[in-house]
Amino acid sequence: MGLRWLRLGGRSPHMAQSEYDPDYQQALRQEILTPIVQRYFRGTLENAEILPQKGPLIIAMNHAGMSFPWDLTGIGILLSQHISGSIQPLAHTMFFDHPWLTWWLPPGWMQVVGGVRAEPQEFEQAIAANMILLYAPEGIRGISKGWQQRYQLATFDPSFVRLSIRHKVPILPVVCVGNEGLHPWALNLTKIARWFRLPMFPVSPLILVFALFPSMGVWAMRTQLRYYVQPQWQPWKDITTNLSHRLTYEQAESLRSQMQQILNQLCKPKPRG
Predict the structure, then answer these.
(1) Domain coordinates of the chain in residue numbers?
(2) Orientation of helix 245-267 relative to helix 159-167, angle to 10°
């Protein structure tokens, strides 16, 4: 951080607004992210034969890790090998404009790689434009789960169900196992997080390494990320009454319950012998 401060002439990194660059996204994916996902996180994709060949599509996945969202990055990399078209993540606003992240990520980096701000208007615009969106229905509640709740799915935000119905865009559920190991034994100190205006403040024995090497802020522990693709869901086919917030909440909760059951089964200890 000190070296970067000196390179900038004694100034802090500045915020910048940039535009999506598909060529840069493809180069970043092929040259940097793919080797990391395949060799370091050992990402595997199960049931790839049921994947659609193209969008529009909302890819809904459980989220955990209390670290840089490598689980969402990993599924984006693996799916791009089977689905034509760019896959763009719906990302928390902190990845766009939080001043602390400018020390770890280049200014405007999230926009350049195709990130969509997790705000209602931009979410709907992306859906209406027939994009392939990578979405975590748990939102920041998922990534900030402590170690004790690592296998417990948080409440799903129903907005993706409402937009899926309105624009008739299928939802592709994906269950991830292994993302809980990105930052093991971590606790979320919510009071300190609010003081620093952060969505989470993880504390674990690994924080000692981070304190010595702050440039490792976007890194995580080596784990095996396993992704299990589920059949497509077209929620508008289940609608028999007028669309309401209660109805979309119930449908989102039904999907959460189904994914929780699958996660429980996948994480169930195997009998010895």
Answers:
(1) 43-145+155-235+245-263
(2) 110
